[in-house]
Amino acid sequence: MFRGYFHSILRCLFGYLIGSMNPRNISDLRTPCLLLDVNRVRANAARFTSIVNRLGVRLRPHIKTHKCVEIARIQTAGHSAAVTVSTLAEARAFASHGFRDITYAVPIEPGKFGEVVGMVEDGVDLKVITDDPSIPNGLSEAASKSGVKIGVFLEVDCGDHRTGVQPDSAEAINIPRAISKAANLSCAGILTHGGHSYGANSIDEVKEIARQERDVMVELAAKIRSDGIEVPTVSIGSTPTISHAEDLTGIDEVRPGNYILYDAFQATIGSCSFDDCALTVLAAVVHRSSDKVIIDAGAIALSKDRGPVDRDPGCGYGRVLDLEGNDLGLRVGGVSQEHGVIPVGDNESERFRVGDRVRILANHSCISAAQHSHYNVLENGEIVDRWEIHRGW
């Protein structure tokens, strides 16, 4: 009898400890931390599945937005398990969880040749990109030492002016030619990113950028093919352009990323509604005075991305929501490393007490997520799981 009683106490104690480590209520979480609304994630995934199916293209989502295996499984359900990454750490983590068809969408440089070759040698279909004529020969040499063949995309600048060759330049033909001639490389195709869509001032302007993105790539693919070079895949993508694209004839795959979480930036420029945003940062009030409230989420927890200041000059570093996700009409106006400053008007600080929790809808979910180790998964108002974020380079 005593033994049964003792075991009951142990079970209760164990249950209490587990409950403490894995709280089910938002208010019990340590702050700052991430809240992920999984119902919104599922809805966003379903919306983009419908879009790509209507447009007749393959989906290769960019997982840099979330860096989370569980989210990638939601967004690739019904598609292939092909993904896009922005770091080799992401590539390693996702390959170890069964995602073996990966495009590393940052221009490859010689210091990373060895790691790329090693992953391909291990059976990962890891494709890389370049806009530099010196890369094909060196990468092929590195690949030849292990007897592997690496797929390489030519990166094209369709108007973003970050990286990529100009589509009317000699390099736009010469680099694919060098790739196709290299013994241990194969031409994977051509790839671009319509990142300038983030600066558009209207939906019509985003639609025009989407048409430009498509036309630049289709015309260049035809030009390269006329030179006798295979272009297996024409790959484009940004969340705004794919959200509003009307016709993608000639395009094979798209690589949007932010759509799965969205953020205040995307909602402001019209890619989604604020009710579609799946990620918020939970923060605690640590100080209040007559003109401001201070929270324990600053530049590290939220990021210092100023967001769509051209469209919303007062956007600050994020929108302040209550625990149910309702907008309180306040903004995080300033940040230092661990402090967020919420300016308030007369008597508004009386709405808050030290220890109160608020949720912050940050401007850029990709950067905010990368600051944290995990998501607290929220479903119907309750914390139901904890999903790891695979960070690093």
Chart the SSEs and their pairings.
Layout: H1 2-21, E1 33-37, H2 38-55, E2 58-59, H3 69-76, E3 83-85, H4 88-96, E4 101-107, H5 113-121, E5 125-130, H6 135-144, E6 150-156, H7 171-181, E7 185-192, H8 203-226, E8 233-236, H9 239-244, E9 253-254, H10 264-269, E10 279-288, E11 292-295, H11 299-302, E12 319-321, E13 327-331, E14 334-335, E15 340-343, E16 357-361, H12 365-370, E17 374-379, E18 382-388
Shape: elongated
Report mean pLDDT, rounded to a whole number: 94
Helix content: 25-40%
Cα gyration radius (Å): 24 Å
Secondary structure category: alpha/beta
Main sheet attributes: strand count, strand direction, barrel closure: 10 strands, mixed
Write down the CATH topology of the largest domain.
Answer: TIM Barrel
Q: Supply the CATH architecture of the largest domain.
A: Alpha-Beta Barrel
- What would CATH call the homologous superfamily of the largest domain? Alanine racemase
Short précis:
This protein has 393 residues and is α/β, with parallel strands linked by helices. It has twelve helices and 18 strands.
Question: What do these coordinates show?
Answer:
This protein is an alpha/beta fold and 393 residues long. The protein folds into two domains: 129 residues, Lyase, Ornithine Decarboxylase, Chain A, domain 1; 202 residues, Alpha-Beta Barrel (TIM Barrel), CATH 3.20.20.10. Helices cover 33% and strands 23% of the residues. The strands form two sheets. Strands 1, 10, 11, 12, 13, 14, 15, 16, 17 and 18 form a ten-stranded mixed β-sheet that branches. Strands 2-9-8-7-6-5-4-3 form an eight-stranded parallel β-sheet. The longest helix has 24 residues. The N terminus is likely disordered.
